Amino acid sequence: MVGNFLLANMTILFLPPAVGIMEKFDVIAPYLLPIVLIVFFAAVINIILIALVVQFIKRRFEGDYEKGDAK
């Protein structure tokens, strides 16, 4: 239900920031490469951290959940 609401209103959520970026592109242009690199590396770091947390949780709680025999 919430997902459908967000999908239905994506235009309202993303159009104003996109217009703002286009209006101020001359200010943003010199910093475009650093911004893209920061966003890219932040995404990579997040993916790695999430993978490590999932790996930790799987090791910590491995067991037969149907029998209630998790560690």
UniProtKB/TrEMBL annotation:
<dbReference type="InterPro" id="IPR005538">
    <property type="entry name" value="LrgA/CidA"/>
</dbReference>
<keyword id="KW-0812">Transmembrane</keyword>
<keyword id="KW-1003">Cell membrane</keyword>
<dbReference type="Pfam" id="PF03788">
    <property type="entry name" value="LrgA"/>
</dbReference>
<keyword id="KW-0472">Membrane</keyword>
<protein>
    <submittedName>
        <fullName>LrgA family protein</fullName>
    </submittedName>
</protein>
<keyword id="KW-1133">Transmembrane helix</keyword>
<feature type="transmembrane region" description="Helical">
    <location>
        <begin position="30"/>
        <end position="57"/>
    </location>
</feature>
<dbReference type="GO" id="GO:0005886">
    <property type="term" value="C:plasma membrane"/>
</dbReference>
